[in-house]
Amino acid sequence: MAEVADTEFGQQVAIRVADERDLSALAGLRRAWLEERLGYPVEDPGFEASFAQWWRVELPRRTFWVAEVGSPRSGYTAVGSINVLEIVHMPRPGARGGRMGHVGNAFVLASFADRGVPAALLEAVVEHAKARRYRRLILAPTTGSAPFYRRAGFAPAGEGLLMLDPSTLPSA
Fold it and tell me: What does the record list as coiled-coil region(s) (predicted)?
């Protein structure tokens, strides 16, 4: 577990790998992510159940981290999260497969964004990547977050991606 001093309130922000106990907090952060961007609450009573189902499907191939403030006495409040999807490359003759990580769903509550929390979450991902011997980390940053990731050492990877929406093709 990593800790970052929150100098404004004198609290420690703890970064740790999330587990099943964090499911509700992670869903709450995902909801907050959208609502902060839209500027209004989003009514979706089935969201938490849908998120829980997604979490259980993704858990075997993703590692999630949560940033939280608080103490054992007062309890903890989640203020941010990030995850990395592990992609395992198929081996080929003459070369063994490797692994890479796709960083996604990074979010920190606006009130904690300038307190070192985003950097601490990203540091946890980078340390995980080193320990798992990933060949690289990739991500698709928003326009606003791209400078943060560049300062952390991420470089443009070119425009070599193509996309297809299968629903636009005729059925066979």
Answer: none
